[in-house]
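Can't paste images in this forum, so I'm doing it all in text. The chain is below; anyone willing to post the predicted structure tokens underneath?
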Amino acid sequence: MCGRFTLRSVDRVRIALRDRIQFDDLIPRYNIAPTQPVVALRTLDHAEELVWGLIPRWSNEPKAIINARAETLDDKPSFSESFEHRRCLILADGFYEWRRAGRSKQAFYFQMRNEGAFAFAGIWDKWKNGQTSVTSCAIITTTANELLAQIHDRMPVIVRPESYELWLNQEIPSSELKKLLEPYPSEEMKSHPVSSQVNYAESEGEDLVKHVDFEVGTTPSLF
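Text version of the structure:
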């Protein structure tokens, strides 16, 4: 799964998007959590904020789903229509994952080797109830690459820049996009252990991504 990620630098985003979109401002975020706004692209010429946690439009209540498994996108009613018609890119420059050791969890931070920004494959939907409207999204996950597999068996799908247009093109059948939902090459990524403070959704700041020695003891719940 993917339960926390970062988006720290406007410059990194501009490089990743090849200056196709101009960002006037971006508050550095070191601990983006479910139910919070994320920076996403539904088209390549416009960035906007969506709520992280997809609420299907037909749902009777705003029950959110933060991750969608690549293997079941076609089968699950919560995902299939969005996968076919409502795809997006969710901007990030790193994400966290946790390794269990008995009753304890050690947090790790994953990023590109060049520490640049990238985009998760996402799907979105718009839920309405009376005057309330929520446009939300979920991050697609796949099997872990060799680097992630040491920590967890799943990882978010990372879309290469040359495939951004393809992923967002709503005229492309979803069946032709399955090839993009593969684990990102581990040799292009790196990771290190970080403080358990990232487990608290209210925690923020650059200290969260700093390398720490392995911690001992039971860490608090993630959400």
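The two ends are 13 Å apart (CA to CA). The chain has one domain: 5-209.
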